[in-house]
Amino acid sequence: MLGITLFSLLAMKNDKLAFRLFDQNGKSASYKELLKDASDADIVFFGELHDNPICHWLEYEITSDLYAEKGKTLMLGAEMFEADNQLIINEYLAGLLKDKNFEAEAKLWPNYKTDYKRLLNFARDSSLTFVATNIPRRYATMVNKSGFDILNTLDKNALQFIAPIPIKYDSTLACYADMAKMMGDSPTHVTTYIACAQAMKDATMAYFILKNFKKGKTFLHFNGTYHSDRFQSIIWYLKQADPTLKIVTLSTVEQPELDELKKESEGLANYILTIPESMSKTQ
Question: What is the pTM of this model?
Answer without folding.
Answer: 0.93
